[in-house]
Amino acid sequence: MAQSQNGIIIRNTTIKVQLYPTPAQATLFDKTFDCCRYLWNRMLTDQARFYAETDVHFIPTPAKYKKSAPFLKEVDCGALISVHQNLRRAFQQFFDHPDRFRHPAYKKKKHCKSSYTIYCQYYPSGKGASIYLTDNGIRLPKAGIVKARLYRKPLHWWKLKTATVSKSPSGKYFCSLTFEYAVKPPKTVQPTQETTLGLNYSLSHFYIDSNGRAADAPHWIHRSQDKLGRMQKRLAQMQRGSKNYEQQLHRLQCLYEHIANQRKDFIHKESRRIANAWDAVCVKDTDLVEMSQTLQLGNVMDAGYGQFRTYLQYKLERMGKPYIVVEKYFPSAKTCHRCGAVNDALAADARRWQCPSCGAVLMRASNAAENLRNQGLAQYYENQGRRISA
To answer: What one-character-per-residue DSSP string does 117-161 give?
Structure first.
Protein backbone atom coordinates (compact mmCIF):
# COMPACT_ATOMS: atom_id res chain seq x y z
CA MET A 1 0.00 0.00 0.00
CA ALA A 2 1.43 3.41 -1.01
CA GLN A 3 2.11 5.95 1.72
CA SER A 4 2.94 9.65 1.32
CA GLN A 5 6.15 10.74 3.00
CA ASN A 6 8.03 14.02 2.38
CA GLY A 7 6.42 14.53 -1.01
CA ILE A 8 7.27 11.03 -2.30
CA ILE A 9 5.38 7.74 -2.36
CA ILE A 10 6.61 4.57 -0.68
CA ARG A 11 5.44 1.77 -2.94
CA ASN A 12 5.55 -2.01 -2.54
CA THR A 13 6.03 -4.42 -5.42
CA THR A 14 6.04 -8.21 -5.30
CA ILE A 15 8.03 -10.46 -7.63
CA LYS A 16 6.95 -14.10 -7.64
CA VAL A 17 9.46 -16.68 -8.85
CA GLN A 18 9.41 -20.45 -9.07
CA LEU A 19 11.81 -22.39 -6.87
CA TYR A 20 13.62 -25.61 -7.73
CA PRO A 21 14.72 -26.92 -4.33
CA THR A 22 16.81 -30.00 -3.65
CA PRO A 23 15.09 -32.91 -1.86
CA ALA A 24 16.54 -31.73 1.46
CA GLN A 25 15.35 -28.18 0.88
CA ALA A 26 11.88 -29.38 -0.17
CA THR A 27 11.69 -31.44 3.03
CA LEU A 28 12.62 -28.36 5.06
CA PHE A 29 9.94 -26.30 3.33
CA ASP A 30 7.27 -28.94 3.98
CA LYS A 31 8.35 -29.20 7.61
CA THR A 32 8.14 -25.42 7.98
CA PHE A 33 4.61 -25.42 6.53
CA ASP A 34 3.55 -28.04 9.09
CA CYS A 35 5.24 -26.22 11.99
CA CYS A 36 3.59 -22.92 11.09
CA ARG A 37 0.17 -24.56 10.89
CA TYR A 38 0.78 -26.41 14.19
CA LEU A 39 1.91 -23.21 15.93
CA TRP A 40 -1.11 -21.26 14.64
CA ASN A 41 -3.54 -23.86 16.00
CA ARG A 42 -1.72 -24.12 19.36
CA MET A 43 -1.66 -20.35 19.88
CA LEU A 44 -5.31 -20.09 18.87
CA THR A 45 -6.27 -22.81 21.36
CA ASP A 46 -4.28 -21.25 24.21
CA GLN A 47 -5.71 -17.82 23.44
CA ALA A 48 -9.26 -19.16 23.67
CA ARG A 49 -8.51 -21.00 26.93
CA PHE A 50 -6.78 -17.97 28.47
CA TYR A 51 -9.66 -15.71 27.47
CA ALA A 52 -12.24 -18.12 28.93
CA GLU A 53 -10.38 -18.27 32.27
CA THR A 54 -9.31 -14.62 32.70
CA ASP A 55 -11.49 -12.66 30.24
CA VAL A 56 -8.26 -11.14 28.87
CA HIS A 57 -6.99 -11.45 25.30
CA PHE A 58 -3.44 -12.84 25.24
CA ILE A 59 -1.44 -14.75 22.59
CA PRO A 60 1.68 -16.62 23.79
CA THR A 61 4.95 -16.15 21.89
CA PRO A 62 6.45 -18.99 19.81
CA ALA A 63 9.36 -19.41 22.26
CA LYS A 64 7.00 -20.86 24.87
CA TYR A 65 6.20 -23.84 22.67
CA LYS A 66 9.71 -24.97 21.74
CA LYS A 67 10.21 -26.91 24.99
CA SER A 68 7.05 -28.99 24.57
CA ALA A 69 7.48 -29.18 20.77
CA PRO A 70 11.25 -29.46 20.07
CA PHE A 71 10.65 -29.98 16.34
CA LEU A 72 9.94 -26.23 16.11
CA LYS A 73 13.68 -25.63 16.60
CA GLU A 74 14.42 -27.37 13.28
CA VAL A 75 12.82 -24.63 11.17
CA ASP A 76 13.55 -20.93 10.77
CA CYS A 77 12.44 -18.92 13.81
CA GLY A 78 11.52 -16.00 11.53
CA ALA A 79 8.68 -18.08 10.04
CA LEU A 80 7.33 -18.80 13.54
CA ILE A 81 7.52 -15.13 14.49
CA SER A 82 5.52 -14.17 11.40
CA VAL A 83 2.81 -16.68 12.42
CA HIS A 84 2.50 -14.93 15.77
CA GLN A 85 2.29 -11.52 14.07
CA ASN A 86 -0.27 -12.75 11.56
CA LEU A 87 -2.48 -14.12 14.33
CA ARG A 88 -2.25 -10.84 16.25
CA ARG A 89 -3.15 -8.92 13.09
CA ALA A 90 -6.08 -11.26 12.40
CA PHE A 91 -7.48 -10.68 15.88
CA GLN A 92 -6.95 -6.93 15.58
CA GLN A 93 -8.87 -6.82 12.30
CA PHE A 94 -11.65 -8.91 13.83
CA PHE A 95 -11.93 -6.62 16.84
CA ASP A 96 -11.85 -3.43 14.76
CA HIS A 97 -14.16 -4.57 11.94
CA PRO A 98 -16.23 -7.63 13.00
CA ASP A 99 -18.60 -7.03 10.08
CA ARG A 100 -15.79 -7.44 7.53
CA PHE A 101 -13.44 -9.96 9.17
CA ARG A 102 -14.36 -13.21 10.85
CA HIS A 103 -12.84 -14.72 13.98
CA PRO A 104 -9.51 -16.49 13.26
CA ALA A 105 -10.14 -20.17 12.54
CA TYR A 106 -8.07 -23.31 12.82
CA LYS A 107 -6.00 -24.39 9.84
CA LYS A 108 -6.32 -27.84 8.34
CA LYS A 109 -3.66 -29.41 6.17
CA LYS A 110 -6.01 -30.19 3.27
CA HIS A 111 -7.91 -26.90 3.35
CA CYS A 112 -5.29 -24.19 3.86
CA LYS A 113 -2.52 -22.81 1.72
CA SER A 114 0.95 -24.21 2.41
CA SER A 115 3.08 -21.10 2.89
CA TYR A 116 5.21 -19.21 5.36
CA THR A 117 6.63 -15.68 5.46
CA ILE A 118 9.99 -14.46 6.74
CA TYR A 119 11.17 -10.88 7.16
CA CYS A 120 14.47 -9.76 5.68
CA GLN A 121 16.94 -8.75 8.40
CA TYR A 122 19.71 -6.30 7.47
CA TYR A 123 22.94 -6.68 9.42
CA PRO A 124 24.75 -3.60 10.79
CA SER A 125 27.75 -1.98 9.09
CA GLY A 126 26.54 -3.12 5.66
CA LYS A 127 27.41 -6.79 6.23
CA GLY A 128 24.55 -8.01 4.10
CA ALA A 129 21.06 -9.35 4.70
CA SER A 130 19.42 -12.59 5.75
CA ILE A 131 17.71 -12.91 2.34
CA TYR A 132 19.31 -11.96 -0.93
CA LEU A 133 19.31 -12.85 -4.63
CA THR A 134 22.08 -14.61 -6.49
CA ASP A 135 22.61 -15.10 -10.21
CA ASN A 136 20.35 -18.15 -10.39
CA GLY A 137 18.74 -18.46 -6.97
CA ILE A 138 17.60 -17.01 -3.66
CA ARG A 139 19.37 -17.32 -0.34
CA LEU A 140 16.84 -18.20 2.38
CA PRO A 141 17.51 -18.78 6.11
CA LYS A 142 18.03 -22.44 7.06
CA ALA A 143 17.61 -23.53 3.43
CA GLY A 144 20.65 -21.79 1.95
CA ILE A 145 20.73 -20.90 -1.73
CA VAL A 146 17.67 -22.29 -3.50
CA LYS A 147 17.71 -22.48 -7.27
CA ALA A 148 15.07 -20.23 -8.83
CA ARG A 149 13.93 -18.92 -12.20
CA LEU A 150 14.52 -15.17 -11.93
CA TYR A 151 12.57 -13.87 -14.92
CA ARG A 152 12.69 -10.36 -13.49
CA LYS A 153 15.24 -8.76 -11.17
CA PRO A 154 14.63 -5.76 -8.89
CA LEU A 155 16.33 -2.42 -9.38
CA HIS A 156 19.35 -1.70 -7.22
CA TRP A 157 17.58 0.86 -5.00
CA TRP A 158 14.72 -1.47 -4.11
CA LYS A 159 14.76 -2.75 -0.53
CA LEU A 160 13.71 -6.33 0.14
CA LYS A 161 11.15 -6.55 2.97
CA THR A 162 9.68 -10.08 3.07
CA ALA A 163 9.86 -13.43 1.33
CA THR A 164 6.90 -15.82 1.24
CA VAL A 165 7.57 -19.44 0.31
CA SER A 166 4.52 -21.34 -0.89
CA LYS A 167 3.63 -24.69 -2.43
CA SER A 168 0.91 -25.15 -5.01
CA PRO A 169 -1.47 -28.15 -4.98
CA SER A 170 0.43 -29.51 -8.00
CA GLY A 171 3.63 -29.71 -5.94
CA LYS A 172 5.49 -26.64 -7.28
CA TYR A 173 7.35 -24.28 -4.96
CA PHE A 174 7.25 -20.51 -5.31
CA CYS A 175 8.75 -17.53 -3.52
CA SER A 176 7.07 -14.10 -3.45
CA LEU A 177 9.58 -11.31 -2.78
CA THR A 178 8.15 -8.00 -1.58
CA PHE A 179 10.27 -4.91 -2.25
CA GLU A 180 9.88 -1.34 -1.03
CA TYR A 181 11.01 1.72 -2.98
CA ALA A 182 10.29 5.43 -3.26
CA VAL A 183 8.85 7.10 -6.35
CA LYS A 184 7.55 10.53 -7.23
CA PRO A 185 3.75 10.86 -7.05
CA PRO A 186 2.15 10.71 -10.51
CA LYS A 187 0.39 13.73 -11.94
CA THR A 188 -3.38 13.53 -11.52
CA VAL A 189 -5.19 13.06 -14.83
CA GLN A 190 -8.48 14.94 -15.26
CA PRO A 191 -10.88 12.69 -17.19
CA THR A 192 -13.38 13.74 -19.82
CA GLN A 193 -16.34 11.91 -21.30
CA GLU A 194 -14.31 11.02 -24.40
CA THR A 195 -11.41 9.59 -22.37
CA THR A 196 -13.47 7.74 -19.77
CA LEU A 197 -14.60 4.14 -20.08
CA GLY A 198 -17.56 2.53 -18.36
CA LEU A 199 -17.49 -1.20 -17.63
CA ASN A 200 -20.59 -3.31 -16.98
CA TYR A 201 -20.19 -6.89 -15.73
CA SER A 202 -21.46 -9.56 -18.10
CA LEU A 203 -21.77 -13.23 -17.22
CA SER A 204 -21.35 -14.38 -20.81
CA HIS A 205 -18.84 -11.79 -22.06
CA PHE A 206 -16.87 -10.91 -18.87
CA TYR A 207 -17.75 -7.25 -19.37
CA ILE A 208 -19.35 -4.86 -21.88
CA ASP A 209 -17.81 -1.38 -22.09
CA SER A 210 -19.50 1.93 -22.89
CA ASN A 211 -18.40 1.63 -26.53
CA GLY A 212 -20.26 -1.65 -26.96
CA ARG A 213 -17.11 -3.81 -26.95
CA ALA A 214 -17.26 -7.24 -25.31
CA ALA A 215 -14.18 -8.70 -23.63
CA ASP A 216 -14.65 -12.38 -24.37
CA ALA A 217 -12.09 -14.70 -22.83
CA PRO A 218 -9.55 -16.21 -25.29
CA HIS A 219 -10.46 -19.49 -26.93
CA TRP A 220 -7.68 -21.44 -25.20
CA ILE A 221 -9.39 -20.92 -21.83
CA HIS A 222 -12.55 -22.56 -23.19
CA ARG A 223 -10.48 -25.48 -24.50
CA SER A 224 -8.97 -25.98 -21.04
CA GLN A 225 -12.43 -25.87 -19.47
CA ASP A 226 -13.64 -28.61 -21.82
CA LYS A 227 -10.60 -30.73 -20.98
CA LEU A 228 -11.24 -30.15 -17.27
CA GLY A 229 -14.75 -31.57 -17.56
CA ARG A 230 -13.49 -34.75 -19.22
CA MET A 231 -10.77 -35.25 -16.60
CA GLN A 232 -13.21 -34.73 -13.73
CA LYS A 233 -15.57 -37.29 -15.21
CA ARG A 234 -12.72 -39.79 -15.56
CA LEU A 235 -11.61 -39.17 -11.96
CA ALA A 236 -15.13 -39.81 -10.67
CA GLN A 237 -15.08 -43.29 -12.28
CA MET A 238 -11.87 -44.34 -10.48
CA GLN A 239 -11.55 -45.96 -7.08
CA ARG A 240 -10.67 -43.41 -4.42
CA GLY A 241 -7.21 -44.02 -2.91
CA SER A 242 -5.89 -46.16 -5.78
CA LYS A 243 -2.67 -45.35 -7.63
CA ASN A 244 -4.55 -44.42 -10.81
CA TYR A 245 -6.80 -42.15 -8.75
CA GLU A 246 -3.82 -40.33 -7.23
CA GLN A 247 -2.16 -39.90 -10.63
CA GLN A 248 -5.35 -38.58 -12.21
CA LEU A 249 -5.88 -36.26 -9.23
CA HIS A 250 -2.39 -34.82 -9.71
CA ARG A 251 -3.07 -34.25 -13.41
CA LEU A 252 -6.31 -32.52 -12.46
CA GLN A 253 -4.51 -30.27 -9.96
CA CYS A 254 -1.96 -29.32 -12.62
CA LEU A 255 -4.78 -28.44 -15.02
CA TYR A 256 -6.52 -26.32 -12.36
CA GLU A 257 -3.27 -24.42 -11.87
CA HIS A 258 -2.85 -24.03 -15.63
CA ILE A 259 -6.38 -22.60 -15.99
CA ALA A 260 -5.76 -20.20 -13.09
CA ASN A 261 -2.58 -18.99 -14.77
CA GLN A 262 -4.42 -18.55 -18.07
CA ARG A 263 -7.15 -16.54 -16.36
CA LYS A 264 -4.61 -14.38 -14.51
CA ASP A 265 -2.68 -13.77 -17.74
CA PHE A 266 -5.85 -12.64 -19.51
CA ILE A 267 -6.86 -10.38 -16.60
CA HIS A 268 -3.43 -8.77 -16.37
CA LYS A 269 -3.25 -8.07 -20.11
CA GLU A 270 -6.81 -6.74 -20.32
CA SER A 271 -6.40 -4.46 -17.28
CA ARG A 272 -3.08 -3.15 -18.61
CA ARG A 273 -4.60 -2.43 -22.03
CA ILE A 274 -7.43 -0.43 -20.45
CA ALA A 275 -5.14 1.43 -18.04
CA ASN A 276 -2.88 2.54 -20.89
CA ALA A 277 -5.67 3.53 -23.27
CA TRP A 278 -8.08 5.43 -21.00
CA ASP A 279 -7.79 8.29 -18.51
CA ALA A 280 -10.48 6.98 -16.13
CA VAL A 281 -12.61 3.89 -15.66
CA CYS A 282 -16.05 3.69 -14.04
CA VAL A 283 -17.26 0.37 -12.63
CA LYS A 284 -20.20 -0.70 -10.50
CA ASP A 285 -19.75 -1.92 -6.95
CA THR A 286 -21.32 -5.25 -7.81
CA ASP A 287 -21.45 -7.83 -5.02
CA LEU A 288 -20.27 -10.90 -6.91
CA VAL A 289 -20.83 -13.23 -3.94
CA GLU A 290 -24.46 -12.17 -3.68
CA MET A 291 -24.87 -12.45 -7.45
CA SER A 292 -23.40 -15.96 -7.47
CA GLN A 293 -25.98 -17.02 -4.89
CA THR A 294 -28.81 -15.56 -6.98
CA LEU A 295 -27.91 -16.61 -10.52
CA GLN A 296 -28.11 -20.32 -11.33
CA LEU A 297 -27.22 -20.29 -15.04
CA GLY A 298 -23.46 -19.70 -14.75
CA ASN A 299 -20.46 -19.57 -12.47
CA VAL A 300 -20.03 -15.91 -11.49
CA MET A 301 -16.93 -16.40 -9.36
CA ASP A 302 -15.08 -18.45 -11.98
CA ALA A 303 -14.61 -15.56 -14.42
CA GLY A 304 -12.32 -13.56 -12.10
CA TYR A 305 -14.06 -10.22 -12.55
CA GLY A 306 -13.41 -9.21 -8.94
CA GLN A 307 -9.70 -9.86 -9.40
CA PHE A 308 -9.84 -7.91 -12.64
CA ARG A 309 -11.24 -4.86 -10.82
CA THR A 310 -8.44 -5.09 -8.23
CA TYR A 311 -5.73 -5.25 -10.90
CA LEU A 312 -7.31 -2.41 -12.85
CA GLN A 313 -7.54 -0.21 -9.76
CA TYR A 314 -3.89 -0.41 -8.76
CA LYS A 315 -2.70 0.01 -12.35
CA LEU A 316 -4.77 3.18 -12.78
CA GLU A 317 -3.76 4.61 -9.40
CA ARG A 318 -0.07 4.14 -10.17
CA MET A 319 -0.57 6.20 -13.32
CA GLY A 320 -2.50 8.95 -11.54
CA LYS A 321 -5.78 8.03 -13.27
CA PRO A 322 -9.12 7.88 -11.43
CA TYR A 323 -10.77 4.57 -10.68
CA ILE A 324 -14.41 5.47 -10.03
CA VAL A 325 -16.81 3.10 -8.25
CA VAL A 326 -20.55 3.64 -8.65
CA GLU A 327 -22.74 2.35 -5.83
CA LYS A 328 -24.35 -1.01 -6.54
CA TYR A 329 -27.99 0.15 -6.25
CA PHE A 330 -27.68 2.62 -9.12
CA PRO A 331 -30.22 1.48 -11.81
CA SER A 332 -27.73 1.45 -14.67
CA ALA A 333 -29.56 -1.18 -16.75
CA LYS A 334 -33.03 0.40 -16.41
CA THR A 335 -31.98 3.99 -17.13
CA CYS A 336 -31.94 5.42 -20.65
CA HIS A 337 -28.56 7.02 -21.26
CA ARG A 338 -30.10 9.52 -23.74
CA CYS A 339 -32.97 11.04 -21.78
CA GLY A 340 -32.33 9.71 -18.26
CA ALA A 341 -35.76 8.07 -17.86
CA VAL A 342 -35.93 4.99 -15.61
CA ASN A 343 -37.88 1.98 -16.90
CA ASP A 344 -38.90 0.16 -13.72
CA ALA A 345 -40.95 -2.33 -15.73
CA LEU A 346 -37.90 -3.68 -17.60
CA ALA A 347 -37.78 -7.47 -17.49
CA ALA A 348 -34.68 -9.15 -16.09
CA ASP A 349 -34.15 -11.22 -19.27
CA ALA A 350 -34.62 -8.32 -21.73
CA ARG A 351 -31.44 -7.79 -23.71
CA ARG A 352 -32.90 -5.10 -25.96
CA TRP A 353 -35.58 -2.60 -25.02
CA GLN A 354 -37.17 0.64 -26.17
CA CYS A 355 -37.26 3.67 -23.92
CA PRO A 356 -40.93 4.57 -23.19
CA SER A 357 -40.03 8.24 -22.86
CA CYS A 358 -37.85 9.10 -25.90
CA GLY A 359 -38.36 5.93 -28.00
CA ALA A 360 -34.66 5.09 -28.28
CA VAL A 361 -33.83 1.42 -28.89
CA LEU A 362 -31.18 0.36 -26.38
CA MET A 363 -28.98 -2.67 -25.83
CA ARG A 364 -29.13 -3.54 -22.15
CA ALA A 365 -25.41 -4.16 -21.47
CA SER A 366 -23.90 -1.28 -23.45
CA ASN A 367 -26.58 1.10 -22.17
CA ALA A 368 -25.70 0.15 -18.59
CA ALA A 369 -22.00 0.76 -19.29
CA GLU A 370 -22.73 4.23 -20.70
CA ASN A 371 -24.83 5.08 -17.64
CA LEU A 372 -21.98 3.95 -15.39
CA ARG A 373 -19.59 6.21 -17.28
CA ASN A 374 -21.91 9.24 -17.02
CA GLN A 375 -22.76 8.61 -13.37
CA GLY A 376 -19.12 7.98 -12.47
CA LEU A 377 -17.97 11.24 -14.09
CA ALA A 378 -20.72 13.22 -12.34
CA GLN A 379 -19.77 11.59 -9.06
CA TYR A 380 -16.06 12.31 -9.61
CA TYR A 381 -16.49 16.01 -10.40
CA GLU A 382 -18.93 16.42 -7.52
CA ASN A 383 -16.30 15.09 -5.14
CA GLN A 384 -13.64 17.29 -6.73
CA GLY A 385 -15.87 20.36 -6.24
CA ARG A 386 -16.34 19.50 -2.60
CA ARG A 387 -12.57 19.23 -2.08
CA ILE A 388 -11.92 22.58 -3.78
CA SER A 389 -14.63 24.37 -1.78
CA ALA A 390 -13.40 22.82 1.45
So the answer is: EEEPPBPGGG--BSSEE-SSEEEETTTEEEEEE-SS---TT-EEE
